[in-house]
Automatic annotation (TrEMBL):
Native source species: Chryseobacterium endalhagicum
InterPro entries documented for this protein: SpoIIM-like
UniProt protein name: Stage II sporulation protein M
Domain of life: Bacteria
Pfam assignment, any one: SpoIIM
Presence of keyword DNA-binding: no
Alphabetical UniProt keywords: Membrane, Transmembrane, Transmembrane helix
Length: 327
């Protein structure tokens, strides 16, 4: 069957499904299940005969939307908050997983720019980090205490200040996405270049190992959450720039709702990062190296699994459960 005829034959049905997704037409769970099965059949056909077509991309997006609609109509028997973190957010991360990849690629690129800038311009760290901070850190390095800057102030006071500051940074990374994603990329550029120049600065003074022992105790949660928040900003921007078959306003509503849920999922990690920075990082050089590495590796395993691996696990599980329920 030619693609043009395939589209013409099913166009009205697909537009009807769009209206169901947008809430303009109400359907009971049984009808939604029938629509989903019908749409999956169309998607399978398109993947077989038009694998690189925009039609296949469109049907894949439509299928994921109707799938979520089905799953949300099922009665949630577990705690709502638990459901949010265990099921809803992972499904959204899976749907928008390419934006997480984009965010990490930009993060690596921008951080590399910070490192290269530090290599070719020895005064770059002073510009990015501030001259007083650099001078204080140099003095701490000379004293053999590379993470001395984290030892000032009270534990609880520092923790509260750090948490609110990091939430503010994350909010900017997300909200700036409303400028078509450009604002998010600018905010990510600023923070990533700072990180790159910061790490090279310690390397240049022969204190990279000591700084890493301290910085990455809290940095794993903090930086990873920052990248996920940038992902949310890119989703928001894409919903405005690329509405696909939806009106721009409806596309923005969906993009904002989905990205905001993912953004909320980063808050617990940001809070944990603040607590670690306020209470643990100040002891980074006095604690046993094995304890230090255990915290870093455990943190990376938890947040990496949650955003990279667990979404696929949840998607496969819920997809199988939904198929069983509709058959």
């Amino acid at each position: 069957m030619r693609e043009v005829y395939f589209i013409k034959q099913n166009k009205e049905k697909w537009l009807g499904i769009e209206q169901v997704i947008q809430g303009k037409i109400k359907k009971n769970p049984d009808d939604l299940s029938s629509l989903y099965i019908n749409l999956i059949n169309d998607l399978s056909f398109a993947q077989t005969y038009y694998p690189k077509s925009n039609t296949t991309v469109y049907l894949n997006h439509l299928s994921s939307q109707i799938f979520q609609k089905i799953y949300k109509t099922k009665r949630v028997e577990e705690n709502r908050l638990l459901y949010f973190f265990r099921t809803e957010v992972p499904l959204l991360v899976y749907e928008y997983r390419r934006y997480l990849m984009y965010a990490f690629l930009f993060f690596i690129l921008f951080t590399s720019i910070g490192v290269l800038s530090g290599i070719y311009d020895k005064g770059f760290a002073n510009i990015i980090l501030g001259e007083s901070y650099v001078n204080e850190t140099i003095e701490n390095i000379k004293k053999g205490n590379a993470v001395g800057v984290y030892q000032s102030g009270s534990t609880w006071g520092s923790t509260i200040g750090i948490i609110f500051n990091n939430i503010g940074v994350g909010a900017k990374l997300y909200i700036y996405g409303i400028a078509g994603g450009v604002g998010t990329l600018y905010a990510l550029l600023s923070n990533s270049v700072m990180l790159g120049s910061f790490q090279y600065f310690f390397y240049d003074y022969g204190a990279l190992k000591d700084s890493a022992r301290g910085i990455w105790l809290h940095g794993v949660f903090e930086i990873f959450a920052m990248v996920v928040e940038a992902m949310c900003g890119l989703i928001l921007g894409a919903s405005i720039l690329f509405p696909k078959t939806f009106s721009r306003f409806n596309s923005f509503k969906t993009g904002f709702k989905d990205s905001f849920k993912i953004f909320l999922s980063t808050i617990p990690f940001t809070i944990c990062a603040g607590i670690i920075e306020g209470y643990v990082t100040r002891h980074a050089l006095t604690m046993p190296l094995v304890v230090n590495l255990s915290i870093i590796i455990t943190s990376l395993t938890i947040i990496g699994y949650y955003y990279f691996i667990y979404p696929s696990v949840v998607y496969k599980r819920t997809n199988n459960n939904t198929h069983d329920a509709v058959l």
